[in-house]
Amino acid sequence: MSRRIIVSIAVLACASLFAFAPLRQQGAPKGGPAMTMAPTAWVIMLELSKWDPAKQPNEQPGFAEHHANVEKLAKEGTLLVGGPFLEGKENKPSGAMMIIKADSAEAAKKLVADDPIIKNDMMKIGSVRGFMAGAGVWIAAPAAGAPKH
Known about the structure:
Blueprint lengths: L2 H24 L14 E8 L14 H14 L2 E9 L4 E9 L4 H9 L2 H4 L3 E9 L18
Antiparallel strand pairs: 1-3, 1-4, 2-3
């Protein structure tokens, strides 16, 4: 995997720390989780389509444009985290995942459908599922005085 891709994934992972901080700060009422749950983001699973496993990611048609789009979405705060699934000793991409901040599943799907890697049919959208970050080391600690989970 190229150094540029690894750095991009690391940057996206760090950006997600800050993106999920407001969710953590909202907290739940004392004594347990909130009674109503609504998605705060959308997990989009991508499947390989015309992806050539014999080529490196940066050799795939539209990959440079995809990378630029991913960086733009991350900078805007829309892409919370994303990256490839890796398989085998060679760590070959076998699909990918993106967690998108959007008002609806349809809006999230449209953002991803406009990505060059999808438009070039290198990958296709497999599923779109609502997601609410509940806990984990990527989620910032609550601000002082904020309710704790």
